[in-house]
Amino acid sequence: MKRCWLVVVIIELIMFYAVEVRSQTPQPTPTPSLTPSTAVVLQPQPVLPSHSNFPDSLTVDFYATSTAGQKTLETRFFMTVQDPQLRVRRFEFDFGDGGKERRDPAPVYEYTRPGIYSVALEVVAEDGRVIRIVKPDYIRVGDRLPQIDFSAEPMSGPAPLKIIFKVINIGGIVVRYRWLPDSVMVTTAADSLLYTYTQAGIYSVTLTAVGAGGEVTKTKKNFIVVTAPFLPVAVFSAAAVVADSTTIGSVSQKTFNISNVGSADLIVSRIVVAGADVGEFKISPDGLNIKPGSTGLITVTFSPTSRGLKSAAVAMIHNAPGSPSVVTLIGVGVEPPSRPPSADFNGSGQVGFDDFFLFAAAFGQPVTAVNKKFDLNQDGVIDTLDFFIFAEKFGK
Question: Domains along the chain?
Fold first, then answer.
């Protein structure tokens, strides 16, 4: 009987051990499947070390086998991924003429209308990044170069001379124009340009038209004649002068300029200050005579007598068009930093017995405007704490 019981116990121990071993044996982790509808993996072209070393604009790119055609253009686009670690969830080509492609990473596309087209590629990666590459004016489809001319109205006059240039488009598709009326180039999609010449001289004008068939340039030499202006022209460096925040009782200064860009003397006969806080500002000088091409300087002095925002205006009467000219004046007055009360109550230069008797007379009294100087710790009470401060300064 004992032997049978022992056999049963041994069998149960063996079965328990076998179950424990199976439960602790590592099981293989199932590999998740990835279908084309959830991810697209492209082969790297070329392979770079790691996308972490490159901005997104270098991680993904695209190119076309042909970018220019005549009446129509059929070309193939290729999306390239330089990072083998990048997994693309979805992408979209935008061909610039309304056409799009979301399935084929190397689509063949046909442009059927003349024009200049910008192409974009947007890629959404598995890690959530959105990468967008845009190539402006990438595709050009056109059957001929633009043919252009231009006119100007007026073509001469005194400076400053405002001129309206107008394009005469004889033929061809044009998407933008580059004007060179002086030394500065102006780019615009409009077929007209308003330009102001401020200096006398004879100017050649160049117009470049950018079209589907290419670029064409037309230059008219000695086209615009600008003579010297017949009157003084006043130009102010500022419409408002803002003074620094200034402590009450002190002063701060600012300046502004008056330039004469005309051909005659600019005479500023009178300079006056007016406004709500006229007493807070002073102007110098009170008149100017400025030669053509020269500049005059006006100094504004701000001396606040109270705290807060202060404003006024300076009016200048002169012999140029637009007189009188007005410049706004603004300043802020601030309180000086407060100083702690001194224990030298009688102002003798030394804290002594005379100061002690004065302090003793005020001890224990309510603080008023008259005796607040005895409240040395400024807690609103003349008490023992103030006495300790007085005692520490006694004899100094």
Answer: 51-141 (2.60.40.10), 147-227 (2.60.40.10), 234-334 (2.60.40.10), 353-393 (no CATH)
Q: Which residues contact 223 (CB under 8 A, 6 or more apart)?
A: 152, 155, 203, 204, 205
Give the model's confidence band at 339: pLDDT under 50 very low, under 70 low, under 90 confident, else very high: low
Q: Between β-strands 88-94 and 115-125, what pairing exists: parallel, antiparallel or unpaired?
A: antiparallel
pLDDT tens per residue across span 100-124? 999 999 999 999 988 889 999 999 9
How far is it, in rounded angstroms, from Cα 240 to Cα 243? 10
If one counts every other C-beta atom within 10 angstroms of the C-beta of residue 300, the result is 22
Is the pLDDT assigned to residue 328 strictly greater than 90? yes
> According to DSSP H, which parts of the chain are helical?
2-24, 56-59, 353-362, 384-393
Would you call the peptide bond into 154 cis, given omega within 30 degrees of 0 as the criterion?
Answer: yes
How many angstroms separate the CA atoms of 63 and 46, rounded?
14
- 156-158 and 214-227 beta bridge pairing: parallel
Render pLDDT for 165-181 as a digit per residue (tens, 0 to 9): 999 987 777 888 999 99
- The rounded mean pLDDT for the chain is 82
Q: How far is CA 120 from CA 46, 62, 107, in A?
A: 21, 9, 13
